[in-house]
């Protein structure tokens, strides 16, 4: 047995380690240009469209101390990569253009950093441009809960220009200062553990992975076991045993019906020792006015025993980024007069995120009050989704909805719910199913089927279908 056969840090062998710093922010706010200046490279010029499309990790040395940087994409399509970068980091440098100010991915990056509970340093970029205004951006950030030091907060901020290098040395010094306060340490005598940053496959050379090491030393020839987290082990046999054991435990939890904690709710204790229920929420609404109304109404429900943690609030449909953030932070997602977009709905089912949408504000507040009182009803399981193509009225006056089944399956006796622009039109039990003129016991994804409904509803072509178990 190797003397390194342990994954536990031994206090007497802990050594100072470099901070892992993630650069986050909106697209084209100067993140990669800033890193270019620090690394003295020209990575930004090599990216398609000037946009970083993968997570890169780079290590630099400053005054004899090392800093590991992670560059994350800013475009909205790369939400998952930003989430991963935020979860791995010790410190997030939030790059905000002093010209453009706070933008959608800026707000999303703040939410990921807060959910990961990491230190934030704000870097105001593009200060070399004549129309830059750092004070204006500080005011915008304050509305997102980021108060920099000279605005009465405790968030370190630095003004920089990746183009001229102005303020970059100061930023690096601030990173080392914040890092020293965090007292980051690792044990180099134990087997290596850390995070998988990203992976790729080359047809000739095989699989490549970028790893961030949090503890230990990784050596050539070692075997690693990986998911999002990796660890080195002594032999291939041990790796196989660990994978088998993990799968066995997973199946045991499934068969035992593992009870997950109530989504979005966490119990904590106040300084006085009282129990506090913290409800984590992501709120999306159709307009800024609606969003402010929902936020204000929820704040009025706050008590000494119940507080709200607003992880993210925004305008527009509930998207993949909202689902990813909710899954990472065990939060509930509330939509007011907005829908869940199709890709987010698919991800929601996979991640088992609790999402609720409302057209009437008092119904939203009623559900929140039930959560506060611990009276929340179990969520209905959506078995299938589809779209109404045409509605038929038969000679016996019964109604049949001709639908394209886009997800899942349907069997007779399930409940069909129809919505139009996020408003529920009605619900009815499915009495029978047909494809063309042939009766079916079951229809599934890809089928165009007729759903004979127990009662008439005011539905029409284009309405959306959800099917749930009764």
Describe the structure.
The protein is α/β, with parallel strands linked by helices and 470 residues long. The chain has four domains: 18-183, 3-Layer(aba) Sandwich (Rossmann fold), CATH 3.40.50; 187-256, no CATH class; 265-373, Rossmann fold (3-Layer(aba) Sandwich), CATH 3.40.50; 382-468, Beta Barrel (Elongation Factor Tu (Ef-tu), domain 3), CATH 2.40.30. 27% of the residues lie in helices and 36% in strands. It is built from eleven helices and 25 strands. The protein has helices spanning 31-39, 43-46, 79-88, 104-116, 134-142, 168-182, 236-256, 288-299, 320-329, 342-351, 361-373; strands at residues 14-16, 20-25, 56-62, 65-71, 91-97, 119-125, 156-159, 185-187, 193-202, 206-215, 223-226, 229-233, 265-269, 275-285, 306-315, 332-336, 355-358, 382-393, 399-411, 415-420, 423-435, 438-440, 442-444, 448-453, 464-468. A six-stranded mixed β-sheet has the order 3-4-2-5-6-7, sandwiched between helices. α9 packs parallel to α10. The longest helix has 21 residues, at 236-256. It is globular.
Q: In DSSP terms, counting alpha (H) and pi (I) runs of 4 or more, how many helices? A: 11
Distance between the termini: 57 Å
Helix content: 25-40%
Q: What is CATH's topology name of the largest domain?
A: Rossmann fold
**Total domain modules:** 4
Using only CA atoms, what is the Rg?
Answer: 26 Å
Would you identify the CATH architecture of the largest domain? Answer: 3-Layer(aba) Sandwich
The geometry reads as: globular
* Poorly predicted runs: 1-7, 41-54, 253-261
Number of strands: 25
Strand content: 35-45%
Superfamily at the CATH H level of the largest domain?
A: P-loop containing nucleotide triphosphate hydrolases
Mean pLDDT: 80
Class per helix and strand makeup: alpha/beta
Strand order of the largest sheet: 3-4-2-5-6-7
CATH class label of the largest domain? Alpha Beta
Major β-sheet profile: 6 strands, mixed
